[in-house]
Amino acid sequence: MKKLAMIYEGKAKKVYKTEDESKFIVYFKDDATAFNGFKKGSVAEKGIVNNQMSAILFAVLAKKGVKNHFIELINEREMLVKAVNILPIEVIVRNIAAGLLSKRLGIEEGTVLNTTVLEFSYKNDELGDPLINEDHIRILNLAKDKQVEIIKSYAFQINSILKEYFLKRQIKLVDFKLEFGVCQGEVILADEISPDTCRLWDADTDRKMDKDRFRRDLGRVEDAYKEVLSRVMK
Q1: Degrees (nearest 5) of the Cα angle 14, 43, 15?
Q2: How far is CA 177 from CA 44, 93, 173, 220, in A?
């Protein structure tokens, strides 16, 4: 599949058109950012890890009935995906208190939540990706009510599947971010599933194995990413 013009570059990926207008190529970068881009850096081979891990998990989810944009891996940094129009909504699913949830609500980090928490944020860099609710989504025309219901249903299903999958590999799924897009009129999962978009802790020690190692200057970021991938591949 021939790669044509780049149509989008984000913090962690580049998206290219192909000869087939129904397919895109996604390239995963090593660039790392945090705090809405205020902290910037690079993590060696992060793009390789995130590309391969996303491919594995998209395939796992597809087998469980979660429709997503993944078609196939092209090489270690690129995947072929279905062309989607991304909805400007980030979906955050939380199982254990961490990060902003702990700061906002004063819940000690590491507290297992008595119910799964689903949050939305407005995908808008200029506004700092603010938290929004379903009424905000409606007044901003970010998605249709039916699309939001589909997204919510998928989010809880994905959480159930991934929690079990990771735990079998001695990893706790603390929280994670999802993005969805519209492909031929249908809402499907898109973006990536990786240590960039998930908080992942070792099940025995609660050692952080995700982007928080970069955010909080904990060191050994590359090693943590590679370890997650090695476990996911088992």
Answers
A1: 5
A2: 22, 6, 11, 23
CB of 51 within 8 A of CB of 76?
yes
Task: Tell me the CA distances in angstroms from 210 to 4, 42, 85, 216, one per residue in order.
Answer: 32, 14, 28, 11
Phi, psi values for residue 114, rounded to 5° = -80, 0
What tokens appear for 94 in the block?
């939380």
> For 29, how many CA atoms within 13 A lie in the half-sphere containing its CB?
14
Q: Which residues are 82's β-sheet partners?
A: 23
Backbone phi, psi, residue 190, to 5° = -140, -160
d(CA 103, CA 106): 5
- For residue 203, give both structure tokens: 């099940």
Tokens of 72: 């196939």
SS (H, E, C) 152-200: HHHHHHHHHHHHHHHHCCCEEEEEEEEEEEEECCEEEEECCCCCCCEEE
Q: What is the pLDDT of residues 114-164, one digit of tens each?
A: 999 999 999 999 999 999 999 999 999 999 999 999 999 999 999 999 999
- For Cα atoms 28, 160, 131, give the angle at the middle one, nearest 5 degrees: 65
pLDDT per residue as tens digits for the range 23-44 = 999 999 999 999 877 789 999 9
Q: Supply the pTM of this predicted model.
A: 0.96
3-state secondary structure of 1: coil
Question: Two tokens at 232?
Answer: 């996911």
Question: pLDDT (tens digit, 9 = 90+) per residue, 55-105?
Answer: 999 999 999 999 999 999 999 999 999 999 999 999 999 999 999 999 999
